[in-house]
Write a structure and sequence with these properties.
- It contains 13 helices and no strands.
- The protein has 251 residues and is an all-alpha fold.
- The longest helix has 34 residues.
- The two termini are 25 Å apart.
Length: 251
């Protein structure tokens, strides 16, 4: 497994895909930082470290869809280029292939998330004035990250299962978006028209729980629920995806 992980990491980090994607996001963060600094430098005393840093809290939901990119970086059109077929034909166990790609995709996602958060918060710290609200901003970011991380991991497991089980990469991405973002409003509609049980199920969807982190600020029992839901989704998607891939015919 170690050699396979090393090979997958080498493949991902030698491509421009990861770095170009990160540069684009960091450039957008730089634009946001410049806007915050420009607002403060023009005399707006309401703009400070707290006001700019807590934007991170509001952007956590976007991270739910980032696994579509990180999964694509690792999976890399393998059905289209027949590289997955070659790996299986070479004798690499399918379980190792599946878990190896999942671990590398998760590693890539964690590295990217750490860099993006560190650059933005660090930029806010350097460019903007500070006051007694600084600690509250950092605490809010830490709390939201603690609740978001397991839900992101669950989304990564779900996305990678889609890439393994759907031959067309674009279609797999659409399926992942539908499962993560379209199913919750459908459940909400079913809860209104059919039975309240659908609304109860919706409350445990990752997208809904991410949005709920703001309204459950510093309620650590809610963070515990996020970890339970995220890990259940990660393990469930991984087991289902690995078992289905084990039986899947690769043409």
């Amino acid at each position: 497994m170690r050699n396979y992980l090393a090979a997958e990491c080498y493949k991902v980090f030698r491509r421009k895909y990861f770095y170009l994607s990160l540069v684009v996001v960091l450039a957008l963060e730089g634009l946001m930082l410049w806007g915050c600094w420009f607002t403060w430098s023009n005399g707006n005393t309401n703009m400070d470290f707290y006001s700019a840093a807590v934007i991170v809290v509001m952007m956590m939901s976007v991270g739910l869809y980032a696994p579509i990119l990180t999964g694509d970086m690792v999976f890399s059109e393998q059905y289209k280029h027949n590289t997955l077929k070659n790996e299986v034909a070479y004798g690499i166990p399918r379980r190792r292939i599946y878990l190896g790609k999942l671990l590398v995709a998760t590693l890539v996602a964690l590295i990217a998330a750490a860099v993006m958060v560190a650059v933005y918060v660090g930029g806010c710290w350097v460019l903007l004035p500070h006051n007694q609200s600084d600690q509250l901003a950092l605490a809010a970011i830490g709390y939201t990250l603690a609740g978001s991380l397991p839900l992101w991991l669950g989304a990564q497991g779900l996305v990678l299962a889609c890439y393994f089980l759907v031959r067309n990469t674009t279609l797999a991405a659409f399926v992942a978006v539908a499962l993560l973002g379209v199913v919750p409003p459908i459940l909400q509609l079913c809860g209104l028209l059919i039975h309240p049980i659908f609304e109860t199920v919706r409350q445990f969807m990752p997208a809904v729980m991410l949005d709920g982190l703001r309204s459950h600020a510093f309620q650590w029992d809610y963070v515990g629920q996020c970890w339970i839901v995220g890990l259940v989704l990660l393990v469930g998607a991984t087991v289902a995806g690995a078992l289905a891939f084990q039986k899947k015919e690769i043409r």
